[in-house]
Design goal:
alpha+beta; GMP Synthetase, Chain A, domain 3; 3-stranded mixed beta sheet; 3 helices; 3 strands; Zn-ribbon-containing, possibly RNA-binding protein and truncated derivatives
């Protein structure tokens, strides 16, 4: 339990151990990649968010079904955007998912 003399914890620098620490590290990496991608994505695709990379497949999520549909139709353009970033240059397949939950 915190006492009045305890200093607040800066959660931005929080580094838990084990699997939770790995998730924090992955989340930070995806946040950085999404920041870099936002510079190259057209305005119509700004709601796409890179959420997973497995092998040579990148998975994006959006809350907008129309954006997901358009992104699926412009597969080659999205691959071209990914190839502009060294960390994503090996991606050969893109999966687009829709998340309709309100957070």
């Amino acid at each position: 339990m915190r006492t009045p003399n305890d200093k607040p914890i800066n959660v931005a620098n929080f580094n838990p151990k084990g699997k939770l620490g790995l998730l924090f590290t992955q989340a930070r990496a995806f946040n950085q990649l999404n920041d870099q991608l936002s510079e190259f994505l057209p305005d119509a695709f700004k709601t796409l968010s890179l959420c997973a990379i497995k092998g040579n497949t990148a998975t994006f999520v959006t809350h907008n079904q129309a954006v997901a549909f358009r992104a699926q139709k412009q597969h080659e353009m999205l691959l071209g955007v990914l190839k502009q970033l060294d960390a994503l240059a090996d991606i050969q397949e893109i999966v687009i998912k829709v998340d309709l939950k309100e957070y």
